[in-house]
Recover the amino acids of this structure.
C-alpha cells in the first residue's frame, strides 16, 4: 500500500493540474467572463482595487501552479537525501509531501479563480469615473464638451470639433452628461 501511495498521489496531482489549467484557460482564454475593457473608465480607487485583485490572482495562480507541478513531479534534487531512511518511510514522506503540495495547489488555484472573478465583477459594478462633460442648451443650438475656462460672461467649451464660445446670457440649460451625442 505504501509503495502505491506516491504514484497514486502523483497521478491525482497530474489530473488536478490538468483540470485546473483547463478551468483557468477557459476563464481567461475564451473570455467567458468579461468586464470593462479599460479600467481607466473606473474611479481611481476602484481601478486600484481591480489592479490589486489581478496582481493577487497572478500571485496565487503562479504559486498554486508551482505547488501542483511539485506535487505531480516531485522536487528536483541533485541527491536524494532520503536514501538513508528505510524505503517504506521514504515513500510515505514523499507521498505526504506531494499530498500537502497538491492541497495547497488546489486551494491557491481556486483562490486565483475567485480573485479573477472578483476583479471582473469589480469592473462591472465599480463606479465609473466622472466624464466632466456638459451639454449647453441655447436657442437653436446645443454644445457638448468639457469646460476649459469661464471669463466675461462666456464659457469656452472644448468639443470634438474644437473650442466653442458659449455666451452664458443665452444659456437655457446646462446638464452634465456621460457622453456627447454624435451629430
Amino acid at each position: 500500500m505504501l509503495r502505491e501511495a506516491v504514484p497514486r498521489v502523483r497521478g491525482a496531482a497530474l489530473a488536478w493540474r490538468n483540470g485546473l489549467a483547463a478551468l483557468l484557460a477557459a476563464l481567461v482564454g475564451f473570455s467567458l467572463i468579461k468586464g470593462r475593457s479599460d479600467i481607466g473608465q473606473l474611479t481611481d480607487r476602484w481601478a486600484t482595487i481591480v489592479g490589486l485583485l489581478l496582481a493577487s490572482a497572478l500571485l496565487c495562480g503562479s504559486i498554486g501552479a508551482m505547488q501542483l507541478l511539485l506535487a505531480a513531479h516531485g522536487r528536483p534534487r541533485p541527491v536524494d537525501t532520503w536514501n538513508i531512511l528505510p524505503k517504506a518511510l521514504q515513500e510515505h514522506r514523499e507521498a505526504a509531501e506531494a499530498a500537502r503540495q497538491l492541497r495547497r495547489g488546489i486551494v491557491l488555484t481556486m483562490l486565483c479563480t475567485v480573485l479573477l472573478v472578483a476583479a471582473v465583477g469589480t469592473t462591472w459594478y465599480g463606479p465609473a469615473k466622472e466624464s466632466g462633460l456638459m451639454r449647453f442648451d441655447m436657442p437653436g443650438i446645443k454644445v457638448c464638451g468639457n469646460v476649459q475656462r469661464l471669463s466675461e460672461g462666456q464659457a469656452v467649451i472644448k468639443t470634438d470639433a474644437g473650442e466653442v464660445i458659449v455666451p452664458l446670457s443665452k444659456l437655457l440649460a446646462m446638464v452634465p452628461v456621460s457622453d456627447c451625442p454624435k451629430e
Summary: The helical segments are 2-29, 44-73, 87-125.
